[in-house]
Amino acid sequence: MMSARTTGFIRRSISLALLATLVEVTGCIADDELDGPLGEAQESIAAVTPSLWGCTSVDATVFTHVFAGRAVSCGVGVYCAVGSGQQIGTVLTIGDVRVSQTNPGYYVAGSCLGPTSFQWPLAGANGSAWVINNYVDLDTDPGDLRDYAGGQKTYDGHQGEDICIASFRTMDKGIPVLAAASGTVIETHDGEFDRNTSCTGNANYVKVRHANGSEAWYWHMRNGSVAVSTGAHVNAGTKLGEVGSSGCSTDPHLHFEVHEYNGTLLDPFRDNMFASPPAYSASVHLLDVAMMLGHVSDAAAKSPGMNANLLNIGAQFSTVMYTGNGLAGQTLAVQIMGPNGKQWNRSADITLTGTERQRRFRWWWTLGNTRGDYVVRFLVNGSVAKTLTFTAG
Q1: Which structural domain, as residue segments, surrounds residue 80?
Q2: Where do runs of H (alpha helix) occur along 11-114?
Q3: Which pLDDT score is estimated for 115?
């Protein structure tokens, strides 16, 4: 909703006195659209408008195009709105303004809304609570990849930011999805299965429209978690739902996607829309660790359950690291200390070879015959980052 101070819509029936007030803040009127008393005010309106909201022209041609549902140009950094009377029909952003009104009695007005600034839609720290697994693919050639930093942290045709959490176990704790900016909820969907590990079914989601007409889409939410309704106003930081894996999704994550008022895809990183954007390259951190019975597959490691803490002599077990980010040359390893306080076993170091995203690393072990309490140390760059304990009996 815009205030009358910053925008307005002028019709033929408006009195000259009211028109004079509106001229101070808004409005372009085409010369040949005026008659009677309104026509007498056209010169002052034309003179003041360009400095107010960046109309590149106030001639009749522009408004003929507007009323035909085509376009009028808006200045860089300026946002425009169109509609009838005092009710806004469409809120528009930088570039060509697409107008839906066709009645020549309606005119165009503008307001300086400014660009939308996003906060991060998940709480916690980059690499330890979540990690960006895919950015927007900016290369339009099939098969070629390019993210906003010139790298390839994306997949072909990807239209958003995939923000991943460690596992389904983490998802089951209920990880809130937060509105990145204030706006109005324009669409929601819930009730879909949320533990997908392949591209299937429909997603649970929320769409929010911001004051400048752009939209943010929050995709793949947890079943039953959508916390807002269509038409509701939300502030930045409002809980919209929870991270899930509904629809076309292989792991629990939030797909965050942004569009212009006219449907054009935006890249919030390229377009500098985040108030505090996460670093593209960062040191490796542990999202989580797990201890599981048996020699588990990667598919099983996606949903680890409670950590195993009581093992039989001779049992097979697995340790899992869920990592976020990582730089070339950084190392990961697992060291297991026996009941006597000495090292029972240690894995070889895994050395990262490039800029990493989300990873799962698994180690398989077979327990010996020594009973007692063991400590599992998860090592990052040679230092203990996390520990788990178990008892052999």
Answers
A1: 16-111
A2: 16-23, 42-53, 60-67
A3: 52
Give the pairing type, strands 108-111 and 79-84. antiparallel
CATH code (residue 253): 2.70.70.10
Same domain, 256 and 297: no
Per-residue HEC secondary structure of the chain comes to: CCCCCCCCCCCCCCCHHHHHHHHCCCCECCHHHCCHHHHHHHHHHHHHHHHHHCCCCCCHHHHHHHHCCCEEEECCCCEEEEEECCEEEEECCCEEEECCCCCCCCCEEEECCCCCCECCCCCCCECCCEEEEECCCCCCCCCCCCCCCCCCCCCCCCCCEEEECCCHHHHCCCCEEECCCCEEEEEEECCCCCECCEECCCCCEEEEECCCCCEEEEECECCCCCCCCCCCEECCCCEEEEEEECCEECCCEEEEEEECCCCCEECCCCCCCECCCCCCCCCCEEEEEEEEECCCCHHHHCCCCCCCCEECCCCEEEEEEEEECCCCCCEEEEEEECCCCCEEEECCCEECCCCCCEEEEEEEEECCCCCEEEEEEEEECCEEEEEEEEEEC
Same domain? For 258 and 294 the reply is: no
| 212, part of any domain | yes
Query: pLDDT under 70 in the chain at which residues?
Result: 1-115
